Amino acid sequence: MAIFDTFGISGSGLLAHRKWLDAVSDNISNVNTVSRTNEDAFQQRMIVARAVDYGTGEGGVRVARAEFGNPEGRLVYQPDHPLADAEGYVKYPDIDLGDQMSQMIMAQRGYQANLAVVERATAAYQAALQLGKG
Fold this sequence. Notes:
By secondary structure, the protein is α+β, with helices and mostly antiparallel strands. It has two helices and four strands. It has helices spanning 5-29, 97-131; strands at residues 45-51, 61-68, 74-77, 89-92. The strands form two sheets. Strands 1-2 form a two-stranded antiparallel sheet. Strands 3-4 form a two-stranded antiparallel ribbon.
């Protein structure tokens, strides 16, 4: 392991958690997006992360792909809504707000943990440089 690998590994974790937070915030902001019944509902986005060089202690993590939720959504009876069909139904995304809030907290904590590693590594490297100044 090279001396500055800590920054690369933690930096990759920061990037993965930021993308996770972006996906969750997009899902939360669209939880009440209404569609016509003949259209697809907003699909929640989920981020899948993958370890790079798993087991070596090097490499960090990367976002492997994004997965999307069910485009069918859920039908809600709202006959007064301007997008309602002839039977009075509209389509909402099938997103659980409580689950999204839990996802947001986990992503925030992961981001904070990786940021703390970067800050501690920076402090340790600066202290090591001060030793040489004698």
